[in-house]
Amino acid sequence: MSDASYLSLEKLTLAYGDSVAVANLDLDIRKGELIALLGPSGCGKTTTMRAIAGLLAVKSGHVRLDGTDITRVPANKRAVGLMFQSYALFPHLSVYENVAFGLKLKGMRGTELDTKVQSGLKSVGLSTFANRKPAELSGGQQQRVALARSMVMEPKVLLLDEPLSNLDARLRLDMRTELQRVQKETGVTMIFVTHDQAEALALADRIVVMKSGKIEQIGSPEDIYNRPTSSFVADFVGFENIFPLENGKMKTGAGLIDLSGDLSSHLSSGAPSAAGLAWRPRMVTLGTGPFQGTVRGTSFAGDSREYLLDTALGPIKAEVEASQPAHALGDALTFDLPAEKAAPLLRFV
Ligand SMILES: Nc1ncnc2c1ncn2[C@@H]1O[C@H](COP(=O)(O)OP(=O)(O)OP(=O)(O)O)[C@@H](O)[C@H]1O
Predict the structure, then answer these.
(1) What keywords does the record list, in alphabetical order (predicted)?
(2) Smallest CA separation from ligand 1 atom 6, residue
(3) What's the gap in Å between 205 CA and the centre of ligand 1?
(4) Does domain 7-226 have CATH number 3.40.50.300?
(5) Which residue CA neighbors atom 4 of ligand 1 most closely?
(6) What is the pLDDT of residue 92?
(7) Distance from C-alpha of 211 to C-alpha of 39, rounded to nearest angstrom
(8) What is the pTM for the complete model shown?
(9) Is the CB of 241 under 6 A from ligand 1?
(10) Range 96-124 average pLDDT
(11) Contacts of 37 (CB under 8 A, 6+ apart)
(12) Would you state the pLDDT for residue 262?
């Protein structure tokens, strides 16, 4: 086992009956990494987590953890923790008893148990809540109990399935920080599932983007955000203006067109064999350029304003600072898609 493959999924195929949900998936995760599995509903995120946890039989392939093949090891012998989006706390037990539960099952008692539980509660800031019942806690506090309960078991890997999805926007932000802190303090390897790209970008060391049971791209948050390799990932992370390339020209509703700026030198530095180009709305220049559009929609987002333009190329989304003069529905605007700002896509899928 190398450092880069503390947890390895090798050619993992997972199915429900005859229906394959995850196909031939390879993934190596380093010890202490915080990994986000990101992707649309049904792409196989939860299925992959269930297989790592031992809750779903593997059809073919292997799961290795810390040098051991655990593909056929029962869930309770894997040292893999799992935290669900519904925290699944025992309502009749106190916070203390909830956190102690798994340790007691392992036969721990007395001072050792008490020390572990106290330290687990302390690590999530809930020492003074030990005697409360889950119903007497806020959603965020319940989430912390669930986290403490998982962490006291000292798992080699902690899996979190949509851990923040039941929390309101404010609490989600708090819990993001909390999760990150606990992870860095304990050094536990964590994999969390989310379909929220902002959450993945904010939390993860590396993001694994999945599509239809396969990995579409693996990279740092910066890679995924700035350098998506396919149109699917580009679309998923907010590049709204995405076009295929054919012989160095952009294929649009108005046919093949040349871009202004030096596309070839931009591409040769980034991706010489690009299959497409993508621009975020704020990469579109409004007010000057070779193209024409008519404002069909506008939305105000505090610092910025977004315009949806009807154009011969197809619909274009542009974002400008809100301090710029506003345009009205029906206004005709010129715009540019600057070649040097485009993200080159290797695959158009
Ligand atoms: N118990 C099941 N029986 C049959 N098919 C299932 C079962 N659970 C999931 N699937 C199918 O497997 C595929 C992957 O599902 P999975 O739950 O892993 O997706 P996901 O990416 O976690 O989605 P979501 O974000 O909605 O939770 C989907 O096509 C789904 O319909």
Answers:
(1) ATP-binding, Nucleotide-binding, Transport
(2) 16
(3) 25
(4) yes
(5) 16
(6) 96
(7) 6
(8) 0.90
(9) no
(10) 93
(11) 45, 48, 49, 191, 192, 193, 194, 208, 210
(12) 63
Calpha distance 88→106 (Å, rounded): 19
Q: Residue 225: CA atoms inside 13 Å, Cβ hemisphere, count?
A: 13
CB-ligand 1 contact for 234 (6 Å cutoff): no
The pLDDT of residue 170: 77
Q: Output the CA angle 302-304-307, nearest 5 degrees.
A: 120
Residue of the CA atom closest to atom 2 of ligand 1: 16
In the chain, where the domains are located: 7-226, 231-345
Q: Give the ipTM of the model, two decimals please.
A: 0.96
Q: In terms of Cα–Cα distance, which of 277, 311, 274 is closest to 295?
A: 311
214 lines ligand 1 (CB under 6 A): no
Residue closest by Cα to atom 25 of ligand 1: 41
Residue-level pLDDT at 265: 66
Each residue's pLDDT tens digit, 131-165: 999 999 988 888 889 989 999 999 999 999 887 77
